[in-house]
Amino acid sequence: MEEEKKEIDFEIGMKQNQELKLEEEPQQQQKQVGDEHVLRFLDSVDNYLTLFESLSCTLRQGWLELVSARHSMGASRVNSSLLDLKVHSASTSLQVTPDIVDSMEEQPHFILRKWGSLYDGKCSYEDQNSKVDGLQGKSGSPLPRHRGKPQLSEEISPKQAPLMVDDQVQKKRSRSLSVFGTLVSPQLRAAQLSFETALETLVEIANMRSTMLSTFNGVHKELGVAKEIR
Amino acid sequence: MANRAQIPTSNSALIAMIADEDSVVGFLLAGVGNVDLRRKSNYLLVDSKTTVKQIEDAFKDFTTREDIAIVLISQYVANMIRFLVDSYNKPVPAILEIPSKDHPYDPAQDSVLSRVKHLYSAESVASGRR
């Protein structure tokens, strides 16, 4: 009898432990999710500040190069009064797509399209439309002209496509510089590259900002839920 | 709440600027300048003659245009319209406060960091980075 009582008590104890574990599991999972949000938030704040330090360095270099160009070319040739006020579209723009986080909220994701090509922070690759136009020669777009070699446009190899894209990018860069005259100083070209680098950093900052705000909202919700439980 | 706003998809969104001359000229060299058919540009060059009203109007215009995804604003200019910048909470366009030649970036004044500052020590951000 005593042994049976002991067994029954043991089983009751086991069942109570199992029930307690089942109650604790969702709370532990919630705590893990909350910790993950906090870590991601802290990482994003750190990355945000590091990127701003990098941006400050790049901008300082760009301003210095711009001032050097103004010194060598003359203040009348490098100033804002020469800015192009005719109707024209931006050569460098952004691609914005919604990024779903934690299957709940959306945050924007920015990709830089530098001189019409896509730059995702790791590598730059040409715009899909310009690649197709270059390789296949759609009827709507003009094919490159080659004297004495009319079949050459059909034989453009994939290796030549990046070279054509580079040429297009260089042409757009030159067009942007031409606002300040035909012959520009190397410092002005260097300033252009520095500000292009600054743009890449700014797009990374914009993406980090989105991550920071979404993780902040996640942590905020966790704190709100924790207060309700208490 | 900003996180419940729908994010518009765009393949050729613009970068707007409200900044000093050297910053605007530099970024225009990088190809971000746009002038539409109505002769409206995507930048405002701020100098000693620019009024606070002009800056406010430009900020309101750039943050309501659908073709702009990022607004760059010099931090010292943002301080002139701080109330307007801090009250802005949409995800797009993203407002980024950038340093200028004479005014380095101060994280303590950044509106985004101010929004989230109660989750970390503000002192650790300002002092630990120097």
UniProtKB/TrEMBL annotation, chain A:
InterPro entries: Vma22/CCDC115. Residues 130-162 are annotated as: Disordered. Pfam families: Vma22_CCDC115 (PF21730). This is Vacuolar ATPase assembly protein VMA22. It comes from Hevea brasiliensis.
TrEMBL record, chain B:
Gene3D superfamilies: ATPase, V1 complex, subunit F (3.40.50.10580). Keywords: Hydrogen ion transport, Ion transport, Transport. Transmembrane segments: none annotated. InterPro entries: ATPase_V1-cplx_f_g_su (IPR008218), ATPase_V1-cplx_fsu_euk (IPR005772), ATPase_V1_fsu_sf (IPR036906). It comes from the Eukaryota. V-ATPase is a heteromultimeric enzyme made up of two complexes: the ATP-hydrolytic V1 complex and the proton translocation V0 complex. Subunit of the V1 complex of vacuolar(H+)-ATPase (V-ATPase), a multisubunit enzyme composed of a peripheral complex (V1) that hydrolyzes ATP and a membrane integral complex (V0) that translocates protons. V-ATPase is responsible for acidifying and maintaining the pH of intracellular compartments. Belongs to the V-ATPase F subunit family. This is V-type proton ATPase subunit F. It comes from Hevea brasiliensis.
